[in-house]
Amino acid sequence: xxxxxxxxxxxxxxxxxxxxxxxxxxxxxxxxxxxxxxxxxxxxxxxxxxxxxxxxxxxxxxxxxxxxxxxxxxxxxxxxxxxxxxxxxxxxxxxxxxxxxxxxxxxxxxxxxxxxxxxxxxxxxxxxxxxxxxxxxxxxxxxxxxxxxxxxxxxxxxxxxxxxxxxxxxxxxxxxxxxxxxxxxxxxxxxxxxxxxxxxxxxxxxxxxxxxxxxxxxxxxxxxxxxxxxxxxxxxxxxxxxxxxxxxxxxxxxxxxxxxxxxxxxxxxxxxxxxxxxxxxxxxxxxxxxxxxxxxxxxxxxxxxxxxxxxxxxxxxxxxxxxxxxxxxxxxxxxxxxxxxxxxxxxxxxxxxxxxxxxxxxxxxxxxxxxxxxxxxxxxxxxxxxxxxxxxxxxxxxxxxxxxxxxxxxxxxxxxxxxxxxxxxxxxxxxxxxxxxxxxxxxxxxxxxxxxxxxxxxxxxxxxxxxxxxxxxxxxxxxxxxxxxx
Length: 486
Fold this sequence. Notes:
Blueprint: H1 9-13, H2 17-23, E1 36-38, H3 40-44, H4 49-69, H5 75-82, H6 106-117, H7 145-155, H8 157-171, E2 177-188, E3 193-204, E4 207-208, E5 217-219, H9 226-231, H10 233-238, H11 243-256, H12 263-276, H13 279-290, H14 293-322, H15 333-350, E6 358-359, E7 362-363, H16 367-378, E8 384-387, E9 398-401, E10 407-414, H17 420-435, E11 442-447, H18 450-462, E12 471-475
Parallel strand pairs: 10-11, 11-12
Antiparallel strand pairs: 1-5, 2-3, 3-4, 6-7, 8-9, 9-10
Helix pairs in contact: 4-6
């Protein structure tokens, strides 16, 4: 891949990926957030004393919040203690456009404050388990995995700044560094306020960049999660050694759960059960603690898959596209967008590029991963290609524009998406209208099997869309026949 392409921290700061890996950090992209998250259980279960202390400090802070949760707080106090701006400088999370995100504001504060006085009123005083930040995620209306990661990053921001500073002083030229004031470095329990500190950090535009150790990261679900609780519910019940309690919970569950319950009805029933018997969460956490050694193994596997997809395979994809006319700008957003999709199609179908969209040998399952992959290949264009732009009607995958008078929407979809028909017919058109796009929307659909292809073709025929040039089907079926056999 040519040196003109800059995607990763290593590219922008003149260090090798090997040096970053040896330090133990993840080589983040500075084009777009990557869908990785800090899992606080990896701090709790670590043998590293520094990680253990970080976890203890986090729990101490939540205990402090618990002492304030029953009080009427002024807006200023609520904001100071319960609001947590996103730590966008680590370039991790769900944002599909740059590194901007929502942060943890009023809604987070309200839910956390309420839950600490009700469902989690025993937080910090558990009898059967350790105390875990993730416990706050175990109710349906609670805090999601991306929020718990953001929360964790806020509480360990001082550590991340120090960790990055040590790397930067040793490996990055001083011309690429600057002093930054990091606002939440540690909590002063005496003054009940956060203290700031200055660090020498890598400078990217007008902001600093933070590195994160690989061994506290995961992809997708954390080790302790709401989804895990729902999936493991039968095992949780089997682990309850109090016969009377187990019988009471079972009776309540079976009497509340509707016959032939849907997944949503199951989760609603479990939500009611948790509110009535919050101790059941402690039994789930105890199970996860007993199996805690698996957390490291699982997160390592997930991180390898993420590294393969977003580092190794993405680099190869950019290199292959660079050998085509993909990066030659054409002064029309529709032509540019359509041509680029076609070049991508050619690389995937005719140059074994389909392999770059496999994770662990299996087809991509998350549409968001596909969209991030394409975003990271688009960066060299002179066009304003902003992934996940929201113009009021929901986010489109891409708005490609050459000034306000020339806009095109591009939607990237997986054929396996069970909502494809609705998306195909309405979604992009709605986005086009909202963005006042000047061209018809381009829809690229990636399929990994003949069954998926047949499904898409049926949908196109059903709605008279077979000959629309702006609908591009991309064949990513694994193990294609060789040219000699085709």
